[in-house]
Protein: 3-isopropylmalate dehydrogenase
Amino acid sequence: KTNFKIAVLSGDGIGPEVVAESIKILDAIAEAFHYQFEFKYGLVGAEAIFKTGNPLPDETLEICKESDALLFGAIGDPSFDNNPDAKVRPEQGLLKLRKELGLFANIRPLKTYNSLIEKSPLKKEIIEGTDIQIFRELVSGIYFGEKFTDEEAGYAYDICKYNREEIAPIVHMAFQEAQKRRKKLTLIDKANVLDTSRLWRKVCKEIAAEYPDVELDFMFVDNAAMQLILNPKQFDVIVTENMFGDIISDEASVIGGSIGLLPSASIGHENAMFEPIHGSYPQAKGKGIANPIASILSTAMMLDYLKLDHAAEKLRASVEYAIENKYVTVDLNSEQPYSTSEVGSFIADYI
Amino acid sequence: KTNFKIAVLSGDGIGPEVVAESIKILDAIAEAFHYQFEFKYGLVGAEAIFKTGNPLPDETLEICKESDALLFGAIGDPSFDNNPDAKVRPEQGLLKLRKELGLFANIRPLKTYNSLIEKSPLKKEIIEGTDIQIFRELVSGIYFGEKFTDEEAGYAYDICKYNREEIAPIVHMAFQEAQKRRKKLTLIDKANVLDTSRLWRKVCKEIAAEYPDVELDFMFVDNAAMQLILNPKQFDVIVTENMFGDIISDEASVIGGSIGLLPSASIGHENAMFEPIHGSYPQAKGKGIANPIASILSTAMMLDYLKLDHAAEKLRASVEYAIENKYVTVDLNSEQPYSTSEVGSFIADYI
Ligand SMILES: CC(C)[C@H](C(=O)O)[C@@H](O)C(=O)O
Ligand SMILES: CC(C)[C@H](C(=O)O)[C@@H](O)C(=O)O
Structure:
């Protein structure tokens, strides 16, 4: 297959700017490798609320379902953040998209670059050489369990629920990834308190029998929050449930010092979405200073997913070349910064 | 009042060693300030399971209920950690103790010491000057909500539940603490996803009206996990629910680089417990290398609680004197380390 339908949901803030660079890159790749990418654009997030009243219009969902893969920018707008009572919110679009497309595995690689190590808030000897792959379950747990508020009586609840079928697929993916890497998988949970965590442990242990070459260990989430700072190098692949994954993966994303470089993939049985992990960063919108590399590396993950291995390899090499030569935006090089589009063009040209 | 009943639950691992130093200190304070402390000892944790089969024997609970305050060591033993299927576990003793005594507010101060700043995993310019007080709700939420596992069907759930009465008391405490400090309170929640978080926000906003001099702000827990590493100085007082508090307070505890110094208090309407935040650290048991300062500073928090302000002040000054003069254990001074009991005696003598 050489012809691909790509859904493009740029969203809010710097989303459109960084996604534009990904598209520039895909055009360069199409030319170099003789592929065809057909882009279809959809509204999502605050942008979609302003224009249609709906953070995920049906039309957008249709475009996504018909696509081979989906490029996502970012969502979120200060007008909603400052108004927690707003009934319709950009986040709802993202959560609905995950659920409707069944994107059960959120994958976040955390890699450090030697040339950028001094950007880390952690001391060099602690962060140097860290290379972690986090698998977060994305469509179940307390995010999607029953919720209830009784305004009168003043009480509320949220139910965290998991069944075996929701746990097993992502655990298999994480074991398979560990097999390709340093062969260590850590389940992060709170099995000393939660029934759902005990179920995760049980399922992981059962599945472990199919991957005898991978060492499986368990870590309580509170301890994991400490260990990520004290000794991040101890981790290889991490797998965890939705809420713990939200917290732990965000914590992990800053220890490398280069959140503007970090990509993510959200994979389902039939669809897949690729998204930089930095948010919409509204303060930088329209200034041409946003770092496009997280979006571009998300595009590389998309090429992996589409099994365009050579293209993915070439793209990653081009990104590393740009980083090593300091052809980067102001967040990574304040002395001689390049603009969002200059960095994108440099990488595209190198391809 | 000059006569106090103190329950002593030393627990497992290094618990007994560090609590012994707290008692040494209290004896010195009794002499210097003409108070009387009457100590009653109770079993808890793995120790209690081995001797009685119960991680919190009724007798222990009785001693606690009759006390003016409770000194706690640590719980946990490798024989349980390596056996996650054990039905009776040391943690159950701790959770039951919190619930039975109604210890709804877990308070953890995080202070950095200039002489120890180089121990932090964070860069000096980031951590220097950090001074945070965390209030974690301790007897409700997902820890104590209904739990259920259906082994056959392979599913499980945990319910996170809060009502206004469970939220308000700790929020008041946190506001009052903020008034005495830099007048900033941050609620950490996940109000973009959880109904219980939205209730927390609502209750906090209502209560804020009674503390017009305190600035209240809100932060999502995933962002908080990042901000604690990127810029911990932005925080003054933090308040949060049970599970988020478990994760965030453990993360916070390591950024200062001196977890062996950090105390905690768990306060209820009628009882109060004081506990070093480091765990049972079984590898160090019986070696005389455990740092007693976290336990000793927990004892200082107990003196605050008993309104023995002069004694508390004197004790804190003595601890700072020991730290500034490097009269500390091997974790903080590897060149010329002192033993657990030498450090305790040094501080007691100084009093
Ligand atoms: C926007 C929010 C609902 C979302 C989440 O919590 O999953 C975000 O934090 C993320 O991690 O993608
Ligand atoms: C031992 C465990 C149940 C406990 C908790 O999660 O509350 C511990 O982590 C703590 O923070 O005191």
Observations:
- The mean pLDDT of chain A is 95.
- The radius of gyration of chain A is 20 Å.
